[in-house]
Amino acid sequence: MRTCPTHSAMKVASGSGDKAGFFTQGRWWLKALPVKFKAKIVGMARNIKKLGQEDPRRVVHSLKVGLALTLVSTTLYYPDQVYKNFGSDAIWAVMTVVLVFEFSVGATLGRGLNRVMATLLAGGLGIGAHYLAKLSGHIGEPILLVFLIFLQATISTFFRFFPKVKARYDYGVLIFIMTFSMITVSGFRDGHIFDIAQRRLSTVSIGSVACVIVSIVVFPVWAGEDLHNLIALNIEKLGNSLEGFGDEYFEKTGGEESKDDKKFLEGYKSVLNSNSSEESLANFAAWEPGHGRFPFRHPWKLYLKVGTLARECAYRIEALNGCLNADIQVSSEVSTIIQEACTNTSLESGKALKELALAIKIMVPPSSADSHIENAKSAAKNLKSLLKSGIWEDIDLLKVIPGVTVASILIDVVRCTEKISESIYELASKAQFKSVEPTLSPKKLHSGQNQSIKSAQLDNGPDVGINVRELTLPSPPSENSSAPKASKQRMGV
Amino acid sequence: MRTCPTHSAMKVASGSGDKAGFFTQGRWWLKALPVKFKAKIVGMARNIKKLGQEDPRRVVHSLKVGLALTLVSTTLYYPDQVYKNFGSDAIWAVMTVVLVFEFSVGATLGRGLNRVMATLLAGGLGIGAHYLAKLSGHIGEPILLVFLIFLQATISTFFRFFPKVKARYDYGVLIFIMTFSMITVSGFRDGHIFDIAQRRLSTVSIGSVACVIVSIVVFPVWAGEDLHNLIALNIEKLGNSLEGFGDEYFEKTGGEESKDDKKFLEGYKSVLNSNSSEESLANFAAWEPGHGRFPFRHPWKLYLKVGTLARECAYRIEALNGCLNADIQVSSEVSTIIQEACTNTSLESGKALKELALAIKIMVPPSSADSHIENAKSAAKNLKSLLKSGIWEDIDLLKVIPGVTVASILIDVVRCTEKISESIYELASKAQFKSVEPTLSPKKLHSGQNQSIKSAQLDNGPDVGINVRELTLPSPPSENSSAPKASKQRMGV
Predict the structure, then answer these.
(1) Which of A202, A217, A232 is the last residue of a domain?
(2) Which of A147, A236, B60, B389 gets the most CB atoms within 10 Å of its CB?
């Protein structure tokens, strides 16, 4: 059988054309590869640098995990005497370190305590289950054991859905299920169930204790302090947004465009979604012992209340921001009437919020904000009476609307600011914040503090959960003596 | 030495008084104990019932965990032949089940794949590290091993801070650190490092596969479906809030108080904070294979976009709600002028949002919402021209303000609704939603769907992360054949 010569020639030609195309493409791809690879590497290096610079505590945390792991594995594996004691169960200590070591002391302590207590409880119950099963004979034993494993796993898993359990004991319940199952099934094959349980408990305890010690001793990161700083920072962001709002709004109507300047926008936006990080920080903080300026049982829950009110204020600022980007802007004739009162209201409530943030930060009652709140209230009153006055009769209502909307939101913002102030007064009284002593002039303190708050804010990115950097504020003179030491340690971070 | 008799007598008397007080207190406490205990038990039982009723899938999930754990432990521990193969390493399969089994298929698959891949990678690298260390002699070996453990733990921990890694591979990195450390240190004591790594990999794989199979086969919970329903439900809640707003606002000014009726408030409030649950559901959904109405690579990220726009709309509704609770309410003369236009605007945008929710729910392009959006837009236009008209000249501006504020927020809400509609059109085109075929009259479909959406909403509590109950919608006729089977399975839940 012969094929048509022209047809086969065509086939070859088209085939070689495809091949040539494939090769050129392949060559191009190969040539591009090092360039692409280099770009990837450079991009990644830049990302790593950025992550580290945003919060150097991340680098320290990584080193701490390495240290704890190295400590535990060298102590339990290399000395022959110790290894004889624990045998291959030493691996549980290593595992514990990896699973328990968290970013903050509170999270690490919470996980460590959960793990140890759950292992203890599950070990005890597992031994009980083992002896109970032994009583039911050779055939009954495995059946009863399987039934008990099924029962405890089902019940415990359901308990994990309770909001309170989920918030604080989720990891413990998980470890309980695991340890109970392991002890009961191991016991079926290996008679020395008591030894198994005891060795597991001691290795888990060693691992947990090592984590907690490294976490507390080497540049500790306190969730409580992070929560404290996060709330203060959030309120300060709101203050900054408000302070800038008046000028931004009325300058814009004056013709100047400043859409590129997004900093003003970004400030309050991170407050809108900080709910979940606040809650988890408060949960971790509840595990922490007293540290620095915070005693044990510091009222962490009140911070959540302040945070919620701050978020409500942020919703108002979001509405103001909507006015900033609206199609219809305030007309110049309206602007001349309300500009001063609006700018004053937003400026004064912004200042009040910043003073409130500062009061939290340095832990004094927020009395320095009172005058600004009074000013804001009188500016709002002024604004109201302006709206009431007869000067509007000649102006078209549609032209008045944007200005009136802004004015009424601002009046609402003043109300929010008052509420925030009240909640901070409550916090100050429950947490026994002390007034600044007269030896340090308030003005000097404020300017110094403001600077450090500002520098901290510049360093902070949007990922607040792990990003709220420790502020190295000069501790106020009424502090206890351990504070300077702690802040010195932190300064090294 | 004698003491003064009167003095000692006084002491005794006061002492016995104290004692008597203590005993009465103690007795009272003991008497109260059973009552308190009973109250606690009853309260707990009520809580358990409530949790189960809110989402029966929680009960099913608990049973599934029990089932998977029982399956794995009976298969690996009881048959002698199998136990001979794995020995005490069988415990790793049990551990895997406890740590990998999650509420949704996506989360389980993600954790399982992370665990298996990380074990494989870490096992390989651990063996490599072991042979490298062997080369460096008897003294160099432990030093090099410790150094390698420290290095990998530090680097890997730092990688966990990358947002992308944190979102999808966090668990994998954790398991990588753990397995690498375990293989390297075990290898130092136990020469059979290859066996260790291989047994660990196979037990971990068995455990993961068991989890995935049970998770998919027994009443599967799909994170993707939950995300889909959550977004639809959120938009529907916004729609309900808006639909009711007009009547609520103007009736209130008419004198009727309805502060007790908080349902209207609660609807949109859960949308404000649903950001984190939406994100985690989208992350889990990305792991899921095609299921029911959702093919593999369904555009889950677009749901997040719709969710963000819905949240922006919720901020506006929060502002409207502020007007509802404001001190100064709209006056009756203003009310008569704008009531109709305002009520129409909120009613029509509410209806539009509910139609949009329905379109997502039944996966059709949201064209049924178009007419409502047009109505809302013309109502808003009407509102604007009312504001522009001359009827305001005789009324005091301060009286006009509340009404004008509500009107301008409502005009903004219409803009938000339009944006949401656009994003849902984008979703519909990317996800290839098909139009409803004419065999089923749209009216009939709508009423049926509305009912099931409503009943689902009644069942749902605020904890949306795990609470968005599967809706057993009759699948539209254009569905593929697997859908009815899936929905049948779900109906049994």
Answers:
(1) A217
(2) A236
